[in-house]
Amino acid sequence: MKRPGEVYVPSTRTFPVELPEPTYQAFDDVLRVNRGGQIYIPGLGQIMLSPVLGGEHVGIREELDGRWLVTFCDLDLGHAGPDRKTFNPFSASPPPEASPT
Questions:
Q1: Does residue 22 sit within a domain?
Q2: What is the pLDDT of residue 38?
Q3: Residue 66 region by backbone torsions, left for phi larger than 0, else alpha for psi between -120 and 50, else beta
Q4: Prediction pTM value
Q5: Is 28 exposed, middle or buried (0-12, 13-18, 19+ CB in 10 A)?
Q6: Are 54 and 42 a contacting pair, CB within 8 Å?
Q7: What Å distances lie between residue 2 and 5, 8, 9, CA to CA?
Q8: Which pLDDT does position 16 carry in this prediction?
Q9: Maximum Cα interatomic distance, the chain, rounded to a whole number of Å
Q10: SS3 label, residue 4
């Protein structure tokens, strides 16, 4: 029955001062998201993703149906469509229901 401060031990693992930029080897292009959360795709124009991604790199890949798949690190975010200048994010799966105990 000790308090957390009495048992806490700092980690010995060191972390880099700055994280390395993600690599996107399988993608057509790597784009930097502007501070407003937008990327520019030639032929589609400015596509709004999210201001949270401002300054980060995303990978884009044109798919067979003409849509552009947008990915951040290993996470597929959604598609930018060929016929409109909007971004269609993938739906997040709902959290599992809490089971009564």
A1: no
A2: 93
A3: left
A4: 0.70
A5: exposed
A6: no
A7: 8, 10, 14
A8: 84
A9: 63
A10: helix
Alpha carbon 84 to its chain centroid, in Å, reads 21
Domain count within the chain: 1
In the block, which residue shows the tokens 């409109």?
Answer: 84
Query: In percent, how much of the chain has pLDDT > 90?
Result: 44
Domain membership flag for residue 34: yes
| Residue 13 resides in a domain | no
Range of the domain at 80: 29-89
pLDDT at 79: 92
Q: Is residue 1 part of a domain?
A: no
Detail the DSSP E strand segments found in 19-74.
Answer: 29-32, 38-41, 45-48, 57-62, 68-72
pLDDT tens for each residue of 11-42 = 999 888 887 778 888 778 999 999 999 999 88
